[in-house]
Amino acid sequence: MRLATMRDGSKDGRLIIVSPDGSSYAIAPVKTLQSALEQWDLVAAEMLGIAAFPEQFPADNIAAPMPRAWQWLDGSAFQSHGDLMCQVLGIDPILSDVPLMYQGVSDKFYGPRDDVKFPDEALGIDFEGEFGVIVDAVPMGTTADEAIRHIKLIVQINDWSLRALAGPEMKTGFGWIQANPPCAMAPFAVSRIEALEAEHRALNEKPPFISAEQKEKALAYLVIGSDGQPRLHERLFIVPEPEPEVEEAEAEPGADGIQSEEVEQEPVEDGPSLAPISQKLAEELAIMKTEILRLHVASDPHFALDLGTFFMVDAALGRSYGHPSELRATAPYSRVPGFESDTPAGEAWTELDAGLDRSWTEAGNLVERYDAFCGLDEGARAAWLGWAIARTLHAVPVGGTGADLIDHLGRKLEIEEHVWWRPTARRYFDRVSKGRILAHFGEVGGLELSNRYAASKKHDLAASAEKLFAGQLIVEAEVKDRALNWLPDEMRFGRAEHPDCEGSETDGDGLHVEAADGAVSENADDGFLEAA
Fold it and tell me: Contact at 8 Å (CB) between 161 and 128?
């Protein structure tokens, strides 16, 4: 995963996810990299699941991946580097068993193409290429073994210092103030997994094997002829020199001596060392071993359910590295980046997420987390399963691929949409035309109600519509009931569309006819009743 920050006029920019080839990008589900780090376990899995990068990468409008940070620590991991600094700056060697480190300025990092201004070239500009490790919040007392879990991203950094100022400042015993201006970052910050994969590819990308036939055609010999002219030849033939002859008397004693020496050796207690098995055999054995495990997992549905739930939720929290399974419950990419819902359903989802038992996530490695997860009570494990499955559902507009199943699921769960969602000016009425709002008035109150508000301005009409469909306007009881149950078709789980206020089947007052005496249409869609 590659992350970058696009300039948008704000100090922290807009976080984007860059395609593997660096040519395009997609908007990240959170605005800034700092925000992503603060909720990494939830956001990372969603960003990893993004596979479409619709926009061309804006190379000329890229800031540092992290334009500013809460803290910036610069360390010298090699003693030779520290010794060289002391020599150049004219200070006494610093004797220490730990890497040298100082706390630098972090209120600004330059982008990959930014111009860096220095006060005076005479101050002496020393350049350093560095690797930056971006971490989330590291608690006090974290051990070295635990600290690696907090590494989220790696980025290349251009660092520089002013030689004329560095020595005097270091001699104060405190550190650099003016000698080390802000650093610059490469355009991308990459996840640890991508960095390890790149290293793995480099190890395996060995030079191609060249056959003897190819060598014959690839090589040539420069030969100086008898006429003194140089010529190239693909083949060169030479007369072999005779090998020196070895007397039998010289060879036999050595052979006998070796043989007798081997006989006289004492037997080795540990026996001969065994060569490792081939990689292919190791993989074949792994396949057969996993076949045994698959059979037993498939024969125990309850065990399989817990295992599958663990794989999904552990990966969703950003812990998928090392999983021996392809099972994932990845949240889909948001169709409207940055959209924040204010609906009761959205608030209930936040409460549900906060109520999940996360105690198992601190257990340690993969095996320990799995055992801790299985140790939760059945209700806690079931809650995680529901959360994992639900978060994968896509937001599909009406008529889109998969919308029929979304509607079917809502009907099967007998969801009362009007209880969970009410149209407001912000959510709906400010976003549609005045004519559509008046049509909605007509759907619940007939032409009389829509004509009553026909002269209203759009803003006032939207405010009145919000009150009407919230049951806050003084209208007839029947109209109020219909308004409280009304929803736009896009918010219904596949029920019959509402007829328009004109040309629909209505009674004399322009109101919809209700089904009477159980009379229903034989063409009711999906088993739902229509007014006859």
Answer: yes
